[in-house]
Specification:
The protein is mostly beta strands. A hairpin with a 2-residue loop joins strand 1 and strand 2. The protein has a single domain, classed as Sandwich (Immunoglobulin-like), CATH 2.60.40.1120. The protein is globular. Helices cover 0% and strands 29% of the residues. Strands 2-1-3-4 form a 4-stranded antiparallel β-sheet, with no helix packed on it.
């Protein structure tokens, strides 16, 4: 089924209306955080080399509230890795948070 463990070192991108808002990397526990995010709906794209890209769309963020999301990042089977798979790696595990 894939890697069900936290993925460290994954790039996580926060988007709103197709505009890049912020970018971070998961820690050793697969966690990440975007602080001081304005209320609204966001998309998150997570990636890492040798993993499939994960995308979560229309995540509602409200004022003074922590929003959490978990990702599933399946690892490429060594026989499945397309030649261009490492050009834009995206993957993540764990949390999306808004803190004040």
């Amino acid at each position: 089924m894939g890697n069900l463990f936290p993925v460290s070192g994954a790039v996580v991108v926060l988007m709103r209306n197709e505009k890049l808002i912020d970018r971070t990397t998961t820690d050793e526990d697969g966690r990440f955080i975007f602080r001081y995010t304005d209320p609204g709906n966001y998309n998150i794209i997570a990636s890492k080399e040798s993993y499939h890209t994960s995308v979560i769309t229309d995540i509602p963020v409200t004022a003074d509230h922590t929003t959490r999301n978990d990702f599933y990042l399946p690892k490429f089977n060594s026989r499945q890795v397309p030649a261009d798979a490492v050009s834009e790696p995206y993957s993540v595990n764990r949390k999306f948070m808004k803190e004040n």
